[in-house]
Amino acid sequence: MLASVRSLRRLSSSSSSSSLSPASLRRLLLLLHRPPPPPPPPRPPLPPFQTLARGLLPRIAARPVPRRFSTASCSSTLFRVGECGAPGATAIPEAERGEEEEREGEDGGEADAAVEVAAGRHDTDAYAAVELALDSVVKVFTVSSSPNYFLPWQNKAQRESMGSGFVIPGRRIVTNAHVIADHTFVLVRKHGSPTKYKAEVQAVGHECDLALLKVDSEEFWDGMNSLELGDIPFLQEAVAVVGYPQGGDNISVTKGVVSRVEPTQYAHGATQLMAIQIDAAINPGNSGGPAIMGDKVAGVAFQNLSGAENIGYIIPVPVIKRFISGVEESGKYSGFCTLGISCQATENIQLRECFGMKPDLTGVLVSRINPLSDAHRVLKKDDILLEFDGVPIANDGTVPFRNRERITFDHLVSMKKPGEMAVLKVLRDGKEHELNVTVRPLQPLVPVHQFDKLPSYYIFAGFVFIPLTQPYLHEFGEDWYNNSPRRLCERALRELPKKAGEQLVILSQVLMDDINVGYERLAELQVKKVNGVEVENLKHLCSLVESCTEENLRFDLDDERVIVLKYQNAKLATSRILKRHRIPSAISADLVDEQATDDGEEATNGEIEASCTS
């Protein structure tokens, strides 16, 4: 329709410029002496551009119409809808165009002007959104130093990195957690300014790869605007990623469309949370920058798919809001909830029949339950989980999402607040039951990451004891899964904790001395017992060693290996070994703090008992 209106306008303007023949002049004079014909009935005004689009698009799409349109997409959509017979967009036959041009030339010009004004308004809005982002997006400069898990008493070399961030209401800056991980110093710079301002990290959520920064300088906030958080974009909606990627120092804007919305593995936190896949280029430096749709934020750029072109991912608004609300309520990052169960799909009909599932029932089979979760109190192995908070779960573990989309039901769990109640409907022994479960974040037996803190360690007689963590396994290189000790790797990925505070304590290495000759090949084994007492965690091992009253100190390791030391000789050797290897302390600072706290509590309890006795 837009094309036909513009052609009408061009034809009328070109015909008015030609000269009149004598015959035409006579006809014109006769027409001037005739009485004027009655005026034609007024034509209804052309509806506003955006309203017309919203009125017509639902006829070809069952989902809500995106809030914003580009000029090209709107005109072509309107023309296609007109071809389908939608009201308000009738096609003009070729034979009648001449008469229509004479009658509607003026109206066509007005319609063209209205369309151009509307299109210009949308272009202006788009540019205004970009201008708003320019006053909201900042460049983040980070100086960081990561721990050395092979030598846990020292850090690795200092390094510098850069990322992006944007301002939200409350004078806060949102960026990625991996941009400021293990930071020692953080600076930010706003667009168009040569000055860098010191920033403090207010909260970090490594699972969701988000962080909040604050800047105390009043000068920094002059002229800064905050961005509002929007909604989850629909498929094929356009977004603009704003940030400071590698290849230059100035701000960069790239455009793309939404390709997919589903739970995805977050590379930084190794968790499954909802993410949005887009086809815009997200390069190093883009991390933490906003993905803008209209005049609001649709997500935060945070990772791309290696080995593929133009496949990037942004963190959606529900995850961002969940992170921010947790920080506002508790003053710190509270984590994302989990049920603490492992489930198996029930797509096989024989499996469903075995567990008494009727044809109209769908759900997943509960295969493992974390002993530390509240689900361990009410659920049983081989239960069929049918519904979560009234939402039916399909046989493949998915639930409905928006319009004809599906996501795993884990997303419903992760969006609940810690301590919140969830209602589960399960099938057990052929009968349906409704159970109430409290959801909360759960820590794995072997930590997946340990950012912004030093590793724990304890050294005795040259034996370096540490709790097993995945960062320790990552020190074996990029192919750590194959290069790290197989037994430790399997335990790190599969074992569940049996009680709170449990750790897998390993002998990571042996610092050679006369006291430990012959034991050097026992490194990378788990410590099971100390003097016959099972080890619960590194703090427990430390207390068992320090409180030893026997002549010999015995460690029982994996594969039935045994270490026996003369306790007093080993204590003397420890200081000698520390001095030789320039190690400042035999025990990490966190264990020293815990021991001091425990000693303080014991002293306080003793004073209370003495006071009560007197």
TrEMBL record:
Q: Name one GO molecular function term.
A: serine-type endopeptidase activity
- Compositional bias, Acidic residues, is annotated for 97-110, 593-604
Q: Where is this region: Disordered?
A: 1-22, 31-50, 89-110, 593-614
- Residue ranges under compositional bias (Pro residues)? 34-48
Q: Which Pfam families match?
A: PDZ_2 (PF13180), PDZ_3 (PF17815), Trypsin_2 (PF13365)
Q: Where is the Protease Do-like PDZ domain?
A: 446-590
Protein keywords: Hydrolase, Protease, Serine protease
Query: Residue limits of the PDZ domain?
Result: 339-439
Q: Does the keyword Transmembrane apply?
A: no
InterPro entries annotated for this entry?
A: DEGP_PDZ (IPR041517), DEGP_PDZ_sf (IPR046449), PDZ (IPR001478), PDZ_sf (IPR036034), Peptidase_S1_PA (IPR009003), Peptidase_S1_PA_chymotrypsin (IPR043504), Peptidase_S1C (IPR001940)
Biased composition, class Low complexity, residue ranges: 10-22
Q: Which domain of life is it from?
A: Eukaryota
Q: Provide the GO biological process annotations.
A: proteolysis
The cross-references to PANTHER family, in alphabetical order and at most eight, read: PROTEASE DO-LIKE 10, MITOCHONDRIAL-RELATED, PTHR45980
Q: Say which family it is in.
A: Belongs to the peptidase S1C family.
UniProt protein name: Protease Do-like PDZ domain-containing protein
Lineage, broadest ranks = Eukaryota, Viridiplantae, Streptophyta, Embryophyta, Tracheophyta
